[in-house]
Amino acid sequence: MRRNRVRPFLRRLPSLPILFLSPPPPLLPPPPPPPPNLLVLVVAITADPRRSPPPPPDGAISFPSVHAKELIRALNLVPKDAVAGGGGGAAPRGGGGAAEERLAERRIRLPGIAGASVPELGHHAGYYRLPHTYGARMFYFFFESRNSKEDPVVIWLTGGPGCSSELAVFYENGPFSIANNLSLVLNNYGWDKISNLIYVDQPTGTGFSYSSDARDTRHDEQGVSNDLYDFLQEFFTKHPEFVKNDFYITGESYAGHYIPALASRIHQGNKANEGIHINLKGFAIGNGLTDPEIQYKAYTDYALEMNLIQQSDYKRINKLYPACELAIKLCGTSGTTSCLESYMVCSSIFNSIMNLVGDTNYYDIRKQCEGSLCYDFSNMESFLKQKSVREALGVGDIEFVSCSPTVHQDMLQDWMRNLEVGIPALLEDGIKLLVYAGEYDLICNWLGNSRWVHSMEWSGQKDFVSAPESTFRVDGLKAGLFKNHGPLSFLKVFDAGHMVPMDQPKASLEMLRRWMHGNLAEPCSQLPGFDAVM
User: Fold this and answer.
1) Active-site residue 253, yes or no?
2) Which of 27, 162, 399, 433 is the most exposed place for a label (fewest CB within 10 A)?
3) Catalytic residue among 151, 220, 230, 441
4) What is the pLDDT of residue 109?
C-alpha cells in the first residue's frame, strides 16, 4: 500500500515522559499535545504553466523520526507500520479511473448515514491541486448548509501541527458522528446547520493530503497560509455560487497559529485585488496557541488556581519561566534554530506540572487519560479504512494517519512564534475575532488565552479591557462568560475542555450562530434562521 507522503496533524498530547522527547509533544503549546480537528478540502486543479515552482524551503531542520513515531504511536493514532515521509508517491492509486479524474471533487454518500439523501445533504469531498507547488494536493470535505446556500461559508482548521480535520468532522462539529458499530448518525448540532462548512487536511501531508515532491514541505505560517489561500481560490473557482457569501475562519489548538496567518493572507489578497475576492468577515480561535510568551507564563497560574499543584510547586516551577521567556524573545516572529531551542526550553514548564498531576487529562482536567491518548478516536480510523468509505471519498490506497509525526517535526520551528502580531491590523479594518476557551483545558487554558487577548495593543484595547463581563446563556442556563468591544470578543465556556464543540455541542453551535450575527448575548430564538434550522 502506498503511504501518504504528506504529513498529518498531531492532535493529542502524550503522557508526561513522552512529551519531553526530542521532537516534543504533538499538538499544542508547551511540551504539549496537539488537538485534532476537522477535515481537509481539496479540489483538482491544473497548475498554471506560467508560474514556476517555488524555491526549496529554507532552514529545513530534521529530527530523528523515531521519537515522533513513538509519540504518535503512544497516542494510538498511527497505524503500526505508518510511514509519513515527504517525497515519493504521485497520485493515489486504486479505485478505478484515471488518477487526475479522481482528483476532481465529487458528491459523496458515506455508508451508514440514515435519514437523508445525498442531494438533500449536499456533501462533497475531493482534492485540489495547489498551483504554486511542485505536486501538492489538498483533501477536503465540503458540507452545504442544511438551512440555506446563502448561509456563511465557514472553514475549520484542526491543529497539531499535523492532525487531520476529520477528527472534528466525526467527533466535534461535523454533520455526523460515528457510532460504535461504525455507522454514521446525523449530528443535531453540526455547524452545517447554519453554515456551508469546509474541512481541510493541512499542511500538506496531513490526513489524506499529499504531495509527489518533498519540496512542498512547509515549515512556517507563510508557506501554510499561502497554500490555504490557493486552496480557497480553487474552492471558489469551483463553487462561484458561494463567492458573495460571508466567510469565516474557525479552528482550535495549533490553529491558533494557522487562523491569524490565513486571515492576514486573505486580507492581503483582497487589498491587492489578487484572485477571487474572499468576503472575510471574521475568524474564531478555540483553545488555541497564539502568543506563547504570555500563554506559557499562565500554565502555573492556571494549575495553582485549579488545585493541580501546591504553592511550593508553583514557586519552584516559576523559576523555569525566565529562561523560557528569553528563549521566546530570541525566537521572535521569524527565527528558526532559536525557535526550536525555545520549544525545548519551555517544555520543561508543562512537563513539570504533568509530573505532579500524573494521568490527569491535560485536555480536560476533570478526567483521567484513557491510555496514552486521553481520548479514544479509534472508531474514526477504522471507519476511514473501510473499502466502501475510501471508494466514496476517492482517496485510492493512500493510508490515513490521524496525526502525522512528520508534519509535526517539520513545523516545530513555527511553534514558539507569536501570531498575535498580525491581528490588530485586522481588527482595525473591522474584521471580527472571537477567542473562546473551555474552562477545564490545561494545555491551551482559558487563562492564557484571556491574557493575550487583553494584552493585545489596538485602538480598542482600553475599552475592551474595561468592558463588563456578561453571561452567555443557552436555553436559559449559564453556559459561559463573555466580554466584547467592537470587533473583539472573548468567551470562557463552562463545562468544557480543549474541544468545546465535542464537550458542549449545543453551546458551540449557538456561539457560532450568535457571533456571526453580531451579538453573543442575543437569545437564539431572536436570531434570523433559528426556527428554520432547529
Assistant:
1) yes
2) 399
3) 441
4) 59
